[in-house]
Design a protein that fits this description.
This protein is α/β, with parallel strands linked by helices and 313 residues long. It has ten helices and nine strands.
Length: 313
């Protein structure tokens, strides 16, 4: 019998779990499904809430505690726990699924032959409201995703799918025990950034996996208030640059103080432009500052490559 595991990883968000699990249980699905919670060393009342919710009617809720801190160990633990299922669907603990989300995921894998499928991610700014300075381009870095109203097969990085709303055919993980989320892109606790879902997506693209986008697979991302500040986006891009510099940039033959000179020039140019735009109140100053923060991260990350070696392909 076909089985589906609907999983979320959680850290210190006990106040959101009742609504999340309720919305997960309310999903319709053409196959039986369980709900799997990966508790990542929460210090609040998460375990007590999960115990209470496990006794409520509806699809079974089970949970385990992953003691290695971070989203990557938690997601990989979910994969390990779901190896006996046919489909694994991920949602985050700061999200809620719209009706039909699970049914769309199962249909794409069971009837359309997808090995991976993702859907729309809508940003919910309530109850804090959307800041006036937060334009659509910058808001996209809160995880919004919408590739339009029609299903499509993903062919390249222009139409990504993210792990806040993604499903996998479990055979791809059973067939290759090395196919897991990359620990180099871990994010611990309430930290910022990570990027392990982007690396998984690119890995599947490189393997020519059948990746599907379904517009009827919809979740709402409930944005934390601390993310609605300019410095969050600057730090997010700095952290992304740090990992890019450590693990993704090629080795350059010419360096100054351990980094490529063109990166130094690029950072100085971007930082100067961002400061000038900020001083005159020109639109786009934050976005330019994000570019500068990313390049600064690349600089520092590249200089740290000896202590964070990139594995040989």
């Amino acid at each position: 019998m076909t089985m589906l595991t609907f999983a979320f990883c959680t850290f210190n968000r006990c106040e959101r779990l009742e609504k999340l699990v309720g919305a997960m249980r309310a999903q319709t699905c053409p196959v039986p499904f369980e709900i799997l919670a990966i508790n990542n060393n929460s210090s609040d009342a998460t375990l007590q809430v999960l115990e209470h919710l496990s006794r409520q009617p509806g699809p079974r809720l089970r949970w385990v505690t992953e003691e290695t801190q971070g989203i990557v160990p938690a997601r990989n633990r979910a994969i390990a726990e779901a190896l006996g299922s046919d489909i694994l669907v991920f949602i985050d603990d700061d999200e809620l699924p719209d009706p039909g989300m699970l049914e769309a995921a199962a249909d794409a894998i069971l009837n359309e032959g997808a090995e991976c499928v993702g859907g729309r991610i809508r940003i919910d700014f309530e109850p804090f409201g959307r800041p006036g300075w937060l334009d659509d381009e910058v808001a996209g870095f809160l995880g919004a995703l919408d590739h339009g109203p029609s299903p499509l097969w993903v062919q390249d990085e222009r139409t990504p799918v993210w792990s806040g709303n993604v499903a996998y055919r479990m055979e791809i993980f059973r067939a290759d025990p090395a196919l897991r989320f990359d620990i180099r892109y871990n994010r611990e606790g309430a930290g910022i950034g990570g990027g392990s879902d982007a690396i998984m997506f690119r890995t599947l693209l490189a393997r020519k996996a059948r990746i599907r986008y379904r517009p009827d697979m919809v979740i709402r991302h409930l944005v934390d208030e601390w993310k609605l500040q300019r410095r969050y986006f600057l730090r997010l891009h700095y952290r992304a640059g740090l990992r890019r510099g450590r693990y993704q940039l090629p080795e350059y033959p010419r360096t100054v103080m351990g980094v490529p000179p063109f990166l130094i020039a690029q950072y100085l140019r971007q930082a100067t432009q961002a400061l000038g735009m900020q001083l005159v109140g020109r639109p786009g100053a934050l976005r330019q500052g994000m570019n500068a923060a990313n390049t600064l991260g690349c600089l520092l990350g590249y200089s740290q490559r000896s202590s964070h070696p990139t594995p040989q392909e």
